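Hi all, long-time lurker, first post. I run a small reading group and we've been trying to get comfortable going from sequence to structure in the token notation. Rather than ask abstract questions, I figured I'd post a concrete chain and ask someone more experienced to write out its structure so we can walk through it together at our next meeting. Sequence below, copied exactly:
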Amino acid sequence: MGIGRQYESDPEAAIRKGDFFSCVRCMGEPERFEFFAYRGLQKFPSGSDSPANSNLHVEAQAGKQPTRLVSKKDGATTREIVGDHLDLENAPVQACYHVDVFLVAHPLLQANVPWILSNPIFVGVTRGPRPAQTSTTIRAQLAKCSDFWKRQDFY
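-- Answer (accepted) --
Happy to help. Here is the structure in token form:
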């Protein structure tokens, strides 16, 4: 799991907001990864709801390694580029967007395996209230995930 630098002093805040991403860390840390929606001056990070016709922005930097950015709407690819940023303007109503980042020609990661998977942004979607999560609840959920990856039969 990766979080933005703004959460370094409080990583649980990123988890509570849903503003984090999954990353294959053995391939290296991203120098920068941002995925957010914005409308006017208001910014909506990953894991959040944004109003209809929001703009979407993704930026990924992996040192000298080129990246391929793939934006997806409700699971279907909408746009794909080799580069370090991608912008989508006026995202349609009622859709779930996320981004997959691939390392181009990395010697150890197959071209079809994503390096980073973003959390989604829900554009124009009205969802019910989310239950509040306490630090204790979040720690318990993280412990379950950690236990899963420690299983010997998984490897």
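A couple of things your group might point at:
Confidence is low (pLDDT under 50) at residues 148-155.
The chain has one domain: 2-127.
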